[in-house]
Write a structure and sequence with these properties.
By secondary structure, the chain is mainly β. The chain contains 2 helices and 11 strands. The protein has one domain: Lipocalin, CATH 2.40.128.
């Protein structure tokens, strides 16, 4: 004759099962923390008077947006990241002014937007620790032109926060951008590298 499990053990098992089901069934929203996030571009340039090329780097913390997941870990509606291109700054004010006025024309197109369509490699439910290599596939809009892009990166899980580092690259012409022509710059590589360091926090 089999003995029944003690009542306290039955209760503990039931609580564990309920908690597991709730964890699986819970939709999740991640919000960008702008003060702990940064977006940047890198473009290789050759300056007059220098023997070696140099990376022009512009950065901003003006990033906003959310990423939502349904109960199955699939991206939900409303997921979008927005960067204010007017706030990009490098180590050269003339470069920044030229990019704003000519290449990006931020007076008419002040924002770049990424609408993620798929996140590959992300464990769900989101763990509270550890890391994972991820790939984000999404539609990037710059200067009114939208193109599919793929971002490779790493997600670091820290409690209810996720630190995401990701990067992608494309040629100027893919977004109908004109390569800058700036005094003292002999040549500019036809490749824009975009990088993001995002801190996202789970909404309560």
């Amino acid at each position: 004759m089999r003995r029944k499990a003690p009542r306290w053990l039955q209760t503990l098992i039931a609580l564990f099962v309920v908690a597991s089901l709730q964890a699986v069934a819970e939709a999740t929203t991640l919000e960008v923390v702008p003060s702990a996030s940064e977006a940047r571009y890198r473009v290789r340039e050759q300056l007059a008077g220098y023997n070696f090329p140099n990376d022009a780097v512009g950065t901003t913390r003006s990033i906003s947006g959310i990423i939502t997941f349904d109960t199955q870990g699939r991206l939900g509606p409303g997921s979008k990241l927005t960067v204010d291109l007017r706030t990009l700054k490098s180590d050269e004010a003339k470069r920044d002014n030229y990019l704003r006025a000519n290449t990006l024309t931020t007076a008419s197109f002040p924002y770049a937007e990424l609408v993620p369509r798929e996140v590959r490699g992300l464990p769900f439910p989101l763990p509270g620790s550890g890391s994972a290599s991820v790939q984000i596939v999404g539609d990037l809009t710059v200067r009114g032109v939208t193109r599919p892009t793929t971002w490779d990166g790493t997600a670091l899980f820290q409690g209810r926060a996720v630190r995401l580092q990701a990067r992608t690259a494309f040629k100027f012409g893919e977004f109908d951008l004109t390569q800058p022509r700036i005094f003292r710059v002999l040549s500019i590589e036809d490749l824009i590298r975009l990088e993001v360091d995002l801190t996202l926090r789970q909404a309560s």
